[in-house]
Design a protein that fits this description.
- The two termini are about 15 Å apart.
- The protein is mostly helical and about 170 residues long.
- The protein contains seven helices and no strands.
- It is globular, with a radius of gyration of 16 Å.
- The longest helix is centred in the last third of the chain and has 31 residues, at about 135-165.
């Protein structure tokens, strides 16, 4: 992986802040969010460097909401989405394919997120946490599909431009 230059570092800090603003700004909606789509696009543009953006975002969330058991799920849950994009050999730029991937991710979010509850409380705690969240996973799935159908192309254009105007000086 190439070193992060100053322009990229500033851009990634801004993108982490945008993730946080998007998450906090839409928090009144039950599992309707823009974070999944943004991480998907950030991964397409920044590739492996996206993990810097993700972990700054997760640390900022912990600073705002506190560092509880919920926080540990966020340490890996967004990385899984980035890995899905990175491991896909063909770069997915189709709005329909992106929407389908993000819909499936939203549907599986509750199960993936329940892993710390399985570890901390056992099978019954993890299973009950997961099952009780299924209605929210359905909303998450539908929200991810709707948000990506509407916002994927415009956000790709904006974030791509931001990436290409970053100065090329190295740290």
């Amino acid at each position: 992986m190439r070193r992060v230059n100053t322009g990229e570092l500033v851009s990634m800090a801004l993108l982490s802040a945008i993730l946080l603003i998007g998450q906090v700004g839409m928090s009144y909606l039950p599992n309707i969010e823009i974070v999944s789509l943004l991480i998907y696009i950030y991964t397409q543009v920044y590739r492996k460097k996206v993990f810097l953006i993700i972990y700054v975002f997760v640390i900022l969330e912990g600073c705002i909401y506190g560092f509880g058991l919920w926080w540990f799920g966020y340490l890996y849950i967004w990385s899984i989405l980035a890995l899905i994009v990175l491991l896909n050999k063909k770069q997915q730029t189709s709005v329909i394919t992106t929407s389908a991937i993000l819909g499936a991710y939203g549907l599986s979010f509750g199960f993936l997120y329940s892993i710390p509850y399985f570890l901390a409380g056992g099978w019954a705690a993890g299973f009950s946490y997961w099952v009780s969240g299924i209605p929210f996973d359905l909303l998450h799935c539908g929200g991810n599909i709707a948000v990506s159908l509407v916002c994927y192309r415009p956000l790709c254009t904006l974030i791509g431009k931001l990436y290409h105007i970053s100065p090329k000086s190295t740290l």
